[in-house]
Please model this.
Amino acid sequence: MFAPTYLDYNATTPVVPAVMDAMLPYFSQCFGNASSRHEYGRAARKAIDEARQRVAAAVGAHPTEVVFTSGGSEANNLLVKGAAACLKPGVIAVSAIEHPCVREPARELVRQGWTLEQIAVDADGRVSDEDYQRVLARMPKIISVMLANNETGVLQDVMRLAELAKPAHALFHSDAVQALGKVPVDFRALNASGLHALTVSAHKIGGPKGAGALVVDKRADLRPLVAGGGHERGLRSGTENVPAIVGFGIACELAVAQLESKTAHLLALRRELERGLLKQGATIFSQNASRLPNTTYFAFSDLDGETLVAKLDRAGFAVASGAACSSANPEPSHVLLAMGVAEELARGAVRVSLGGDTTKENIGNFLATLEQTAFQLKRLTAVAV
Model:
């Protein structure tokens, strides 16, 4: 079967062999329900407890602060909706570049009497200090600012932002789905600065789809989205997905162990990629900001991003025109528009996200194919005009 070179690791990652090996027994031999009191159930419960410890260790949290969910989207919804349900309506503030699974539940709260404030970002995609102070003056009850953006890879100084928000006594949350495994994530240090909750997910770090977690300060009040058997400290009822949770734990352990060497590898490849892109006349978004080591978001001013991505796919390279979770939306990236990027240029955006299996040869071949593909598209455009 033809397999394009995969350069879309921010969308998802392949399950690494050690994770798969750890998961397999829990589909067959160790299939018990973790709530059962017999040996099968106890074995499943022990596996979940060990996975919870691994996830907690990866982010510097206590195991009791880890609430397993079906993924990042559910964890973000649990935080936004669950916190709001325990409060009288007020102001909820989210950055203008948040993932839809934060933006959309925040918008839903408006129908319940809440006021939504979007925190502006600068031209590089970093939270605007001036606008953040404006929003803080409104005394928001909930604040959510992502640690790393899924499209541009831009890192926010969440520790400083949480510290600044302390006088507002807001519940402060950060979506760290893209950050885990690519940069250090320390919940305890962030918590000391004023952050109360953090979202992480398995399938971005070599784990399975269908497993994520909300790491949350136990003093934070949340109402569950799913009621029932009282699983996960009553915050997420439902029979636990034991194989996926086990895989999540192993993936976290491996991600932290390999972080330093992987970061160096990815940074070297990203520099190689971006040198080539600049030579071809591409605009690299957020080039001057601190970013994830694996992420490059670029555009050619006279080419449509969706068309370029489709052509590259047929030529053997899997990249993205934006966030995979929002691919059904034909509109330009809300992240780029929030950064002040012209709509025409934003429509040309292409995201390349690298992984541990990416090689220098992959980058060289991609750049050569991109140059040829872009040339052909520009020639077709010129003929059409």
